[in-house]
Amino acid sequence: MATPDSDISELTEAQQLALQQYTSVTDQDVRAAIPLLRRSQWNVEIAVAKFFDGEGPDLVAEALAAQNVPPPRAPRQENLQQSLLHGQVNALRSQNRLDAAPRVVPQPESQALPQPSLILAIIFTPFKLLYKILAVPFRFFAYLFPFLRIFPRNPTTGTLRSVNTSGRRALSPADAAQRVQREFTEEYGENSLPWTSQGYATSLDQTKREYGFLLVILLSPEHDDTTSFCREVLMNAEVTSFLNDPTNTMRVWIGDLRDSEAYQVSTALKCTKFPFSALICNTPEISSTSISVVSRLTGPMTASTYLSKLRAAHAARASQLETGRVAHNLQNSERNLRAEQDQAYERSLAQDRERARQRREAEAAAAAAEKARLDAERNATLLAEKRKAWRKWRASKVKPEPGLEEKEIVRIALKLPEAARVMRKFRASDEIEELYAFVECYEDLQAGITEEVEKPEGYEHEFGFRIVSTLPRVVYDVKGGGTIGEKVGRSGNLIVESIFEGEEEEGE
């Protein structure tokens, strides 16, 4: 559920656009991005700088700076001597002060305006020319009277918003960098400059992570000294060798002012003279995460002068960056070591959990097997008791042997498995089950156990044998029913076979 601080529906259209642009660069969660943008007065560049470089202690001053409002000055009283001393101190501080390297936020490709079709371009050409003609006096009037807001101004720089009229197609930062490299090679020939195929913001982030140097070179094709600077300075063998030296950890980004990102970089770096070069690196004396412009090389100069200034600025910072790089690598090594130790610990925990799970499963399986065995034994004991009780009950229900006075009599000779031949008379009207019951209860009948017992409840008796005749072989099944007279006749020689033994013999 969205909180009031992170409800996007309550934001204005401009604030939603700033939020989308900020999250596309930083990939930060919206709930954390909205409070940071509010503290930055919805200025995307200041918010991105805070995200990567950390927030300063004075949030009010930053908010006022975002609105281009100078902070209020406290009244001060001083004499002439104090003013002179204060001016000298400020001059020394301005000479030694390092400007923070701005992080330019490129426009997302999804927000880039598509190029109109040829037909629409031809139709709107007269209106475009008329707008250019009328815009010149209005801009001059706005320059004379800046307090009149005739044209929209850029909230970050305060300058009038300009429209790209060069006809140069807007590309992504990476594609624009590759286009500058291709145009430079076509114009000045093959070279061995250490080109970077990434945008300014990406190059700045990599330089910050690697504790290296970033040389930003801004070129204006309309400037008179651009050609001589590129041919005589940038393509100089010594300059190229210095830039390509891996021990210098130098990264070079060259931008064309006709591109949107390069123009924003020139505005952020306060570029006022061409050719322009700026050397950027980490400045740990300011803060552990700050990156600043340590040297600016502006205007035309010879290759030796350019190289000497570049070497001097590089040498002044190389030792500090090397120390920071070593400390950063040591931190990364420790972090990687801790990560490996954590992974090994997690693997050990996973193995222990797997062993414990297997042990629990084995114990549960053994307990289930033991329970099943006990249940089987208990069921077998209960079944044997019920079977014994049923035999006693059925033995008491077996009809006695008929006497000589009865006429319908069947004489049967039974061959029992564990006894000799038994002669028994049955009534012809007795069911075949009576014959099976006599065989099942023969031992009890012989022992004279005829006590009255109750039939066990929930027990269905199954006979473990069958009665067959020899010649011809006929099986008298108890489930088929019928009387003894119908099945056997007047007399018969029958054999009692065990069901399992009979099945084995038939299988053989």
Automatic annotation (TrEMBL):
Residues 405-473 form the UBX domain. Gene3D superfamilies: DNA helicase RuvA subunit, C-terminal domain, Glutaredoxin, Phosphatidylinositol 3-kinase Catalytic Subunit, Chain A, domain 1. Keywords: Coiled coil. The keyword Coiled coil applies. SUPFAM superfamilies: Thioredoxin-like, UBA-like, Ubiquitin-like. One of its GO terms (biological process) is ERAD pathway. GO terms for molecular function: ubiquitin binding. GO terms for cellular component: endoplasmic reticulum. Pfam families: UBA_4 (PF14555), UBX (PF00789). It comes from the Eukaryota. InterPro entries: Thioredoxin-like_sf, UAS, UBA-like_sf, Ubiquitin-like_domsf, UBX_dom, UBX_domain-protein. SMART domains: UAS. This is Ubiquitin-like protein. It comes from Glarea lozoyensis (strain ATCC 20868 / MF5171). The lineage of its organism: Eukaryota, Fungi, Dikarya, Ascomycota, Pezizomycotina.
